[in-house]
Design goal:
Blueprint (H helix, E strand, L loop, with lengths): L1 E2 L14 H15 L4 E7 L5 H10 L7 E6 L10 H7 L23 H4 L14 H17 L2 E6 L6 H12 L6 E8 L8 H10 L2 E4 L5 H11 L7 H11 L3 H13 L6 H10 L3 H11 L3 H13 L4 H8 L3 H13 L13 H8 L4 H17 L4 H8 L8 H16 L3 H14 L4 H11 L4 H14 L3 H17 L3 H19 L5 H18 L6 H9 L9 H17 L3 H11 L9 H13 L3 H18 L2 H17 L3 H18 L7 H12 L3 H8 L13 H15 L3 H18 L9 H11 L3 H18 L2 H13 L4 H15 L4 H17 L3 H18 L2 H13 L11 H4 L2 H11 L4 H8 L3 H15 L7 H4 L22
Parallel strand pairs: 1-3, 2-5, 2-6, 3-4, 4-5
Helix pairs in contact: 5-6, 6-7, 8-9, 9-11, 12-16, 13-14, 13-15, 13-16, 14-15, 17-18, 18-19, 19-20, 20-21, 21-22, 22-23, 23-24, 23-25, 24-25, 25-27, 27-28, 27-29, 28-29, 29-30, 29-31, 30-31, 31-32, 31-33, 32-33, 32-45, 33-34, 33-35, 34-35, 35-36, 36-37, 37-38, 37-39, 38-39, 39-40, 40-41, 41-42, ...
């Protein structure tokens, strides 16, 4: 499968490029061997980069490879993914009959919006960039499954940002793939893509091949081929070299001109070259056009503006008949201004020379008529907008409408840079309205949130309408949440919301009521992020009547009210009732902002099964829509739920998967939850040093300001410090956590149970008075919350803080209550502490029973450190038990365990890779490591080796036909 047609065109024979061709051949050979290559051809305009590409792609080195060639154009540089369409367009994947192509199976179907300017993906959130990038990656992977792939992109200095971002995305994931990417760029050219091309080169350090001008010896070789009957004189060669500077394009024009005039490569010819002078291309183009009728000139200008187009469209713009267009193209082709194989000007320098014959006003009129023509023939808004962007002003109403449509189209395809460019032009020439700023802010929210905030502040200044202000403030607050400026967002949204309440009164219309509910829900989300805004938000929430949950906004508000109720620790039963109402969705899919808060409240209330069901819904939806950040957030939350119910291996698997995705997507700057969950799990496994290392990778600034992450972070760090033997440091961290929770008004006893950890630590040190004081701080809240886990925590803290029979009674109660809760690891801990207390009280027989049970339960939970401590106590009590050893399954990393579980469920490597947003190569590496650690050789053996109590993997595939599906 090849696509080389656009690489062909009028050119001289290739000379002086043997070394370059050798380097490109070596790159192709390395790619065939699974070593991805990036090569950049760099040279001035007209130096022959395209001819070099043609020779390399058509020659033997690329035989048997899929070769896709595309050339970027200045007119398309503003359109997102135009470079990608140039590469993949000839495959014709957007035709209706092609959409069932095997190249578009699985996630590759998400490439379609990038390949077809007028197609959008209904499953993808508007403005999301990852789905198209990921879809194109899988399209390339499907091509490489058949044979090695060459992507050759010419004139990359005019490439759009999105296409270059995708090439970067592809190359980051290309390890082991048979891929060669060749980019040709003009030296010292003003780059349309700007930072995108710079980043691509910086990230991948390509082999840069400088394509220099031809030497005098090479020029002589070309002259001999152009005049085979007459040996050239040295004066002719020297003059030709000096005048053209060795530029193949300039050489082509002069030699063509001399042969047409019947001249020879002698002294007379040398004098004629001197007369022609420099800027041969521009001069010769003008001479050709000046010598032709007006109709030929107009066709040349139409070609320069529209590019390769159908004859009837060129005719309409040139103001001549279609027959005259064909005649004019023949004339221009004989003059070497048009390619011999297609209706396209021979070079961009030729195009520039043709346009230089038109005055600025006339050129603007020509582009305006071109845009109208494209509109009349039904071209996409982005194609029309490409002409409008080149106008000095695009201020006519129809132009504004086209630019707005183009922005919507680009946004739906995940091309925010293009959408922003269209909207910026509207802002320059259109009315100064808040709506345009809101749209532009939405487009930039992912790629440039700082500018998005500025635009939303400006939109607020431009409007006095309370409804519009509330809408703007809602969006602004969510951007503030993203960039960790929640207090600012909460303040602005509170002001706008109060004004809206005042204006609408007590009986608003249904649409206004939904706007109020959405704004209130957003305020709860944003205000609950940091401790400084939490008290005000809680006061506001206390005044709200929980909505019935009939609309998306109501369910979102209800979910956040559920979390705030759980924060207060007043009633687990009420929190569960609210959470279940928030999750009730008879007619519409639930959003992540309903599911995630509700799952947290359910987990705190011991309803971990329902919490996991809600999180699985988020994971399934985010896989379907390729919403990676939401996927990471849901995985991190599920890791905490697994920890709550004593599933350390599962928690570690989710945390590792989330961390891997953060690393792949460069999103780690504001993340903390995956690291905290990972550290907690590592400490339970007996690896506190690694836990501290993971916590040290958190880069989130001002983590002490946050209501949730900060307290979990302190708990994770305290437990790691205690496990490393630094009890005083651990105690200080626990007390800091308690003080911070108190100041923030977070009274839920199981949210961050510092008091339980502190009581156990102090009692172990013999500081029973302090231990009882710590236990007392949790007893009241635990009684109010009333769940088996909370009551078990209170009994456990009371029991360890009280020596003697009374304390043993408390520990017995803790064991009983925790056995009835989902907290299996805490149940094992209570068994250990009860066994230790009974041993101290002179009851070794009963102590051994509890200690033996503690070892077994802790082992099943994956709490290796706890199991070893319990085993030591058991042996010390006269019991017998083998050493607690690490099983092969325990040696697996979290991600290896995830991959192994999914493969054992019957999924293919490709399906696992798509579901986890990683590459097939990554899955293969994890499987290889897993096989080595487990001592197996085939995937069929995995199911039998995996631990019996490992929860079954969710079926992540669409249309899965069973474990015998093709690998």
């Amino acid at each position: 499968m090849t696509n080389r047609e656009r690489a062909t065109g009028p050119s001289l024979p290739l000379v002086g490029r043997e070394a370059h061709l050798g380097t490109l051949a070596a790159g192709a050979a390395a790619a065939r061997a699974g070593q991805p290559q990036l090569i950049v051809l760099d040279g001035p305009a007209g130096v022959g980069k395209t001819s070099l590409l043609r020779a390399a792609l058509d020659g033997g080195p690329c035989d048997g490879m899929t070769v896709l060639y595309g050339a970027c154009r200045a007119i398309d540089s503003g359109s997102g993914y135009s470079g990608v369409r140039a590469l993949f367009g000839p495959l014709n994947l957007t035709a209706r009959r092609s959409r069932a192509s095997s190249l578009l199976v699985g996630s590759a179907r998400r490439a379609l919006p990038a390949l077809a300017p007028d197609r959008v993906d209904g499953d993808t959130a508007s403005g999301a960039t990852y789905p198209a990038l990921n879809g194109l990656y899988w399209l390339a992977a499907n091509l490489m499954a058949d044979r090695p792939l060459v992507l050759a992109l010419d004139d990359v200095h005019w490439c759009d940002e999105r296409s270059l971002r995708w090439l970067d995305f592809l190359l980051r994931r290309a390890d082991g793939m048979p891929l060669l990417v060749v980019l040709a760029q003009r030296t010292a050219s003003e780059r349309t893509a700007g930072p995108a091309l710079t980043d691509l080169v910086a990230h991948h350090r390509p082999l840069v091949l400088r394509v220099p001008a031809l030497s005098a010896r090479d020029v002589e070789a070309l002259v001999r081929r152009a005049f085979p009957e007459t040996p050239p004189r040295p004066s002719f060669v020297d003059t030709l070299t000096a005048v053209t500077g060795g530029s193949p394009l300039e050489l082509q024009r002069i030699l063509h001109k001399l042969r047409t005039a019947g001249m020879s490569p002698d002294d007379t010819g040398a004098r004629r070259i001197t007369e022609l002078g420099g800027r041969v291309v521009a001069t010769s183009v003008r001479e050709v056009l000046d010598s032709q009728p007006a109709g030929v000139r107009e066709v040349a200008r139409a070609l320069a503006v529209l590019g390769p187009e159908r004859p009837e469209h060129l005719a309409a713009l040139a103001g001549v008949s279609a027959v005259r267009v064909e005649e004019a193209v023949d004339v221009l082709r004989r003059s070497a201004l048009v390619r011999p194989d297609r209706t396209e000007l021979a070079h961009d320098l030729v195009r520039a020379a043709v346009l230089s014959t038109v005055g600025s006003a006339a050129l603007a009129d020509l582009r305006t008529r071109a845009a109208q023509l494209l509109s009349d023939v039904g071209r996409s808004p982005e194609q029309i907008a490409g002409q409008l962007l080149l106008l000095p002003r695009a201020d006519q109403p129809w132009m504004t409408a086209v630019l707005l449509d183009a922005a919507a189209q680009a946004e739906q395809r995940g091309a925010p840079e293009a959408a922003a460019r269209y909207l910026e032009r509207v802002m320059e020439t259109g009315p100064d309205t808040p709506e345009i700023r809101m749209r532009l802010a939405g487009v930039l929210s992912e790629t440039d949130p700082a500018r998005s905030l500025t635009l939303l502040h400006e939109a607020l200044e431009l409007t006095g309408d309370v409804r519009t202000r509330a809408t703007v403030a809602t969006r602004l607050a969510l951007i503030c949440l993203r960039v960790q400026r929640s207090p600012e967002g909460a303040r602005i949204l509170t002001e706008a919301l109060d004004a809206l309440h005042t204006a609408l009164g007590t009986d608003p219309e249904p649409a206004d009521r939904e706007l109020l509910t959405l704004a209130e829900a957003t305020l709860l989300i944003v205000g609950a992020d940091e401790k400084s805004t939490l008290p005000a938000v809680r006061e506001r929430a206390a005044l709200l009547t929980p909505p019935p949950g009939d609309t998306p906004a109501q369910r979102q508000q209800l979910a956040m009210l559920t979390v705030l109720t759980a924060m207060d620790g007043r009633s687990a039963a009420e929190s569960v009732r609210q959470a279940r109402r928030a999750l009730r969705s008879p007619d519409a899919a639930l959003g992540a902002w309903s599911l995630l808060p509700a799952s947290l409240a359910l987990s705190l209330a011991d309803e971990t099964g329902e919490a996991l069901d809600a999180l699985e819904t988020v994971l399934r939806d985010s896989r379907r829509t390729a919403a990676v950040w939401t996927y990471v957030l849901a995985l991190s939350t599920r890791s905490f739920v697994h920890l709550d119910q004593g599933g350390v291996p599962q928690a570690l698997a989710d945390a590792h998967t989330a961390l891997g995705l953060l690393e792949e997507g460069n999103w780690g700057e504001g993340a903390a939850l995956p690291q905290i969950a990972c550290a907690l799990a590592l400490t339970e496994r007996g690896e506190p040093d690694r836990a501290e290392e993971v916590l040290g990778t958190i880069k989130r600034p001002r983590i002490e300001a946050f209501a949730w992450e900060y307290h979990w972070y302190l708990m994770a760090r305290a437990r790691a410090r205690y496990a490393r033997g630094d009890s005083e440091s651990a105690l200080e961290l626990l007390r800091t956590c308690g003080d911070s929770l108190a100041r923030a008004g977070l009274a839920n006893p199981v949210l961050a149970p510092w008091w339980l950890d502190a009581a156990c630590l102090l009692a172990e040190s013999g500081r029973f008075d302090e231990a009882r004081a710590a236990a007392g701080q949790g007893a009241g809240p635990a009684g109010r919350w009333g769940t088996p886990r909370a009551l078990g925590y209170a009994a456990l803290a009371r029991g360890v803080a009280t020596p003697g029979p009374e304390g043993i009674a408390g520990l017995r109660e803790a064991v009983r209550r925790l056995a009835a809760s989902p907290a299996r690891a805490d149940h094992a801990r209570a068994l250990l502490l009860l066994g230790r207390a009974l041993l101290a009280d002179g009851a070794p027989g009963e102590a051994r029973e509890h200690l033996r049970e503690a070892v077994a339960l802790a082992g099943r939970c994956g709490c290796l450190a706890l199991a070893r401590r319990a085993r030591e106590e058991l042996v010390g009590a006269g019991g017998r038990m083998r050493e607690v050893t690490v099983s092969p399954l325990d040696i697996l990393t979290g991600t290896e365990r995830t991959v192994a579980t999914l493969v054992a469920s019957g999924m293919t490597n490709r399906e696992v890779a798509e579901s986890l947003f990683v590459t097939v190569r990554t899955v293969e590496l994890h499987l290889t490591s897993t096989y080595r650690k487990l001592g197996i050789t085939r995937r069929a053996e995995l199911a039998g080796v995996l631990r019996e109590d490992t929860p079954p993997a969710p079926d992540l595939r669409e249309g899965h036909t069973g474990p015998d599906a093709a690998r």
